[in-house]
Design a protein that fits this description.
Blueprint lengths: L4 E6 L6 H9 L4 E6 L17 H6 L2 E2 L12 H17 L3 E6 L2 H8 L10 H14 L1 H11 L1 H6 L5 H14 L3 H5 L9 E7 L4 H18 L1 H11 L14 H8 L5 H23 L6 E3 L6 H10 L1
Parallel strand pairs: 1-4, 1-5, 2-3, 2-4, 5-6
Helix pairs in contact: 3-4, 5-6, 5-8, 6-8, 10-13, 11-12, 12-13
Length: about 300
């Protein structure tokens, strides 16, 4: 049986992935599969820049609004759901177009999931005690000394991922990148991957800042306030660790004022873009385009038709 063909558009936040996908959808019979760990959450619309109702009506979208904000969604679930959707879309005679910036999901799909050790309760308790004694910044610094590649991909404030990286080091003695080298086989897909990589980072940062301002103006804080009224949320939940919601939570708790909310949200969004661009270098890219160049859509259409 021939492996199904998929097209993939990747890029950092605010690089124009959705706009490009919708432009291609005007020319090609595509259905869009979201590759975004935040778009899966119901009710989180403003802070995730979720495609509008009109956009989703014009082009079929998948893997959006499938989990309550109290839940979680893993790379393994993404792979299983995507393989099912690819088969369904292909049988309908349409083209699966994967679009997003959650690079871990794409790595799992295109390269394969790593077989990593299970959590060790005793070891995790010991690491928790070290966090309590030394603080998250010191623990991130320790990770940077022992696994610089992993530390570069993990926010210095992301306690959960720092904890897991240190746990894996203690259990295996190997850096995470080396563990990934022994991953399980990739699923049977023929994927052509287009990466949007802005040549002018200042222009990307300006777009990121403007988009976060637009989210605030559209009511990001009120959206989170409503979610907290409807669901038993806490700041450690995966949904609430998403960029924008994490800062809005701190604002609602009185830990940030309005100016600090804006500044920290924009800074976190720029940091996210840097991490996404770092991840891109680890993925099999077939075509790279600058989204700010006027011929980008035309060149992307040529790529999609190849």
């Amino acid at each position: 049986m021939t492996a199904p063909v998929v097209r993939v558009i990747l890029g950092p936040t605010a690089s124009g992935k959705t706009a490009l996908a919708l432009a291609l959808a005007q020319q090609l019979p595509v259905e869009i599969i979201s590759v975004d760990s935040a778009l899966v959450y119901r009710g989180m619309d403003i802070g995730t820049a979720k495609p509008s109702v009109a956009e989703r009506s014009a082009v079929p979208h998948h893997l959006i609004d499938i989990v309550d904000p109290t839940g979680s969604y893993s790379a393994g679930q993404f792979v299983r759901d995507t393989l099912r959707l690819v088969d369904d879309i292909t049988r309908r005679g349409r083209v699966p177009l994967l679009v997003g910036g959650t690079m871990l999901y794409l790595r799992a799909l295109l390269v394969g999931l790593a077989e990593l050790p299970q959590a060790d309760a005793t070891l995790r308790a010991d690491i928790d005690a070290q966090f309590a004694e030394r603080g998250v910044a010191a623990m991130h610094a320790e990770l940077a000394q022992r696994d610089a590649v992993a530390a570069a991909r993990i926010r210095p404030s992301d306690r959960q991922r720092i904890q897991r990286a240190l746990e894996l080091l203690a259990l295996t003695g190997e850096p995470i990148e080396q563990l990934y080298a022994g991953q399980a086989a990739a699923p049977p897909l023929r994927a052509s991957v287009l990466a949007l990589v802005p040549g002018d980072r200042r222009r990307l940062h300006a777009a990121i800042d403007a988009r976060f301002d637009a989210m605030l103006d559209a009511g990001l804080v009120d959206e989170l306030r409503t979610l907290r009224q409807r669901h038993a949320l806490n700041p450690a939940m995966p949904a609430m660790r998403c960029v924008g919601y994490r800062q809005a939570w701190a604002f609602l708790e009185g830990e940030l004022d309005a100016a600090s909310l804006r500044a920290t949200g924009q800074a976190a969004s720029r940091q996210l873009a840097r991490r996404q661009l770092t991840w891109l270098r680890q993925l099999p890219i077939d075509r790279m385009l600058d989204p700010h160049q006027p011929q980008c859509v035309e060149q992307a259409l040529q790529w999609a038709l190849a």
